[in-house]
Input
Amino acid sequence: MKLGIVGLPNVGKSTLFNAITNAGAESANYPFCTIDPNVGMVAVPDERLDKLAEMYEPDKKTPAVIEFVDIAGLVKGASKGEGLGNKFLANIRETDAVVHVVRCFDDENVIHVEGSTDPRRDIDIINMELVMADLEMVQRRVEKATKALKGDKKFAHEVELFTALQKHLDEGKLARTFDCDADDAALLRTSELLTLKPVIYAANTDEDGFSRLEQNQYYQQVCEIAAAEGSQVLPICAKLEQDVAELEGEERQMFLAEIGVEESGLDRLIKCSYTLLGLISFLTYGKDECRAWTIKKGTKAPQAAGKIHSDIERGFIRAEVIAYSDMEACGSVAAAREKGLLRSEGKEYVVQDGDMIYFRFNV
Output
């Protein structure tokens, strides 16, 4: 999974990126300090995998990972190339989802590129630049399909669909708010539109604003915008996350309890991302390796096996499955097998979150 962190300059993108990846991206009080996208790989915390590793003491423990890309601040005119805009837009296009950092605090010591704090305006600026970039792409798609239509009538619906989307974008609306059926939605996804990507708004507050979210008018504005377009909101204080990132073990838990949260911003962001993209994890286990694999909800056993190796999918015979919760309750795989909780599943089995699976195959 690849998440792009975007927003206006000086809203806290690189501060947040540093905190969640410990990658040391440069952070400075001026626009464009992040010229090339900083990339950080983050292991997905999974207590189930940790427990399996304790039980099996494998040669290797491999968690699922998320790739975060810190994309330099977008400004007005980015869709026309302003402020290195074209390069930044290309970086966003390569991500699975967007974490849009929105400034939700006042601080005269931190320059705001627009001169004041206004989440609605800031979100509109970013969205409009993405809409303008999408509009160019849709226009080209309509032109291409129109030419193809002269030789093949099957392109008629494509012309109709993308012309309707073009009108939608012309009104300043996002592609993800365009109403269409599942087949048309699948066709739209072939065009790599920026505003079609799912979004998590990371409402970056100061410490005081984070402790009183209900009274934080900036945060409430972000929630209203997200609700209207079906996006998610994650309240976060990037400065606090930096402090959390420097702590470990009990110290970390004590600090989180002190600020009144159960999980770090990274943990909450990962859960939010999995929910947004409809992802789950299944587990493989043994002395060689214990590993977590990320798949889409609804994935059947052979396709899940294909995540490990294409040969396993091709030669799939069956999946020997036990729910992690059943194994944990019994204390071991052997005990769960004795109680009949280890099941043999075929090609139509839909993998569930937390399934421990051993695949049988023959090629």
User: Anything to note?
Assistant: The longest strand covers residues 289-296.
